[in-house]
Backbone:
């Protein structure tokens, strides 16, 4: 915001689009948004720390307007801290964070089933800062982020506490002489408690630290993505294969567990095992970890959770006929490509949970860890045996879908069969016997 004229704009195309063009560059583990507005150049660099649960944003403003400018930068988040914002908002309590070199807000939802007691935080660097935890103050009654009411106020009120429509808004003001530039740091994350949150804020409220983290991100992704380089006559194929496809598999599918139409954050048994097949050469350790994780979500009967949510493991048990078979397939591929036979001897416990009743397609439950554990090899054997169920034509029973979830009603009465599943099972048996 220009403090003299009151003009506001975003360093990204939304929510308050400026008049000039926007340039967006996406790299491995970071994105950069560049814009020029009224003689002020902005560059917004966004990344997530390699190890800590924190999102870092560097906003650099450069003044080439020919005069001194009075400016402020404002960041805004809406707290969910639960399944949906409408359900969790009444239970969220905000308070001011002790943030050397800036100001910040801490937020807690002690009534949350998942992550209750954890502390979320949002902060900005600077010497002239203000904040609010009141969404109504920031947006205004019946307002929107396209024209927030708080942008008409000189400073944010500092209001936090319980009983508010909660948000996190932080603002930092600066005077930029002509030719000068200033970098602001925005930090968003969550930690185990208030103390850990304050420590994380203090650690990253330093531009050098954030830029070092950006370099770590560069090195991390190149170590993974440069293992295999493909050169073909088609430049577009090279661009996809040499980095972007594998990056998307790891960053989107395994780490974020997100997609264009389903950003639920759950672990999918078949989904993540399919994804990790791409990592046998580039990141075999990550593939091994995923295999062990998925094996731990297998019921003692042999079937598996179709998907589940950490940290408690609540998820769905279904009649899908292919889920559990991806475990022996992934294990075979892993052993074939790495030669790691020792992995087959890792002992992993099973789950115990409510069985599906006749006529039930699925059940959402929180199973418990069984006292029975067996080797990864025997987990695979149990999955294969569970899949050896055939219909009157000698083909495997489809159950509630054979990879194609849209065919969930074909085998609901225990009669429908799957040609595809027959091919799939045959391939697994051939690999497993080799």
Residues:
């Amino acid at each position: 915001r220009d403090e003299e004229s009151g003009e506001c704009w975003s360093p990204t195309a939304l929510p308050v689009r400026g008049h000039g063009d926007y340039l967006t560059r996406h790299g491995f583990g970071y994105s950069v948004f560049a814009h020029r507005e009224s003689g002020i150049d902005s560059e917004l660099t966004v990344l997530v720390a390699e190890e800590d649960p924190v999102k870092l944003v560097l906003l650099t403003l450069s003044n080439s307007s020919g005069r001194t400018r009075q400016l402020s930068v404002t960041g805004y988040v809406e707290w969910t801290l639960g399944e949906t914002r409408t359900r969790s908002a009444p239970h969220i309590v905000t308070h001011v964070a002790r943030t050397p070199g800036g100001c910040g807000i801490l937020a807690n939802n002690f009534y949350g089933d998942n992550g209750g007691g954890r502390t979320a935080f949002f902060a900005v660097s600077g010497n002239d800062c203000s904040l609010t935890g009141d969404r109504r103050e920031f947006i205004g009654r019946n307002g929107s982020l396209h024209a927030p009411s708080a942008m008409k106020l000189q400073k944010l009120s500092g209001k936090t506490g319980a009983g508010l429509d909660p948000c996190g808004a932080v603002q930092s003001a600066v005077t930029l002489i002509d030719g000068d530039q200033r970098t602001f740091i925005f930090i968003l994350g969550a930690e185990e408690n208030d103390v850990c949150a304050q420590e994380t804020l203090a650690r990253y409220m330093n531009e050098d630290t954030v830029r070092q983290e950006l370099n770590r991100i560069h090195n991390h992704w190149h170590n993974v993505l440069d293992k295999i380089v493909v050169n073909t006559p088609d430049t577009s194929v090279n661009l996809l294969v040499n980095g972007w496809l594998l990056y998307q598999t790891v960053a989107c599918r395994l780490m974020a567990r997100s997609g264009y139409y389903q950003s639920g954050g759950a672990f999918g048994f078949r989904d993540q095992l399919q994804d990790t097949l791409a990592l046998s050469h580039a990141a075999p350790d990550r593939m091994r970890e995923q295999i062990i994780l998925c094996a731990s979500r297998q019921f003692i009967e042999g079937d598996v959770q179709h998907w589940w949510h950490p940290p408690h493991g609540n998820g769905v048990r279904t009649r899908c006929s292919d889920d559990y078979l991806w475990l022996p397939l992934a294990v075979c591929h892993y052993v074939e490509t790495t030669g790691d036979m020792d992995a087959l001897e890792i002992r992993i416990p099973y789950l115990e949970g409510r069985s599906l009743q006749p006529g039930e397609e699925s059940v959402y439950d929180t199973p418990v860890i069984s006292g029975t554990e067996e080797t990864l090899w025997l987990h695979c054997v149990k999955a294969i045996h569970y899949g050896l169920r055939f219909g009157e034509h000698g083909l495997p029973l489809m159950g509630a879908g054979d990879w194609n979830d849209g065919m969930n009603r074909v085998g609901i009465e225990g009669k429908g069969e799957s040609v595809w599943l027959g091919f799939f099972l045959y391939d697994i048996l051939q690999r497993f016997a080799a």
Notes: The radius of gyration is 26 Å. The first strand starts at residue 22 and ends at 27.
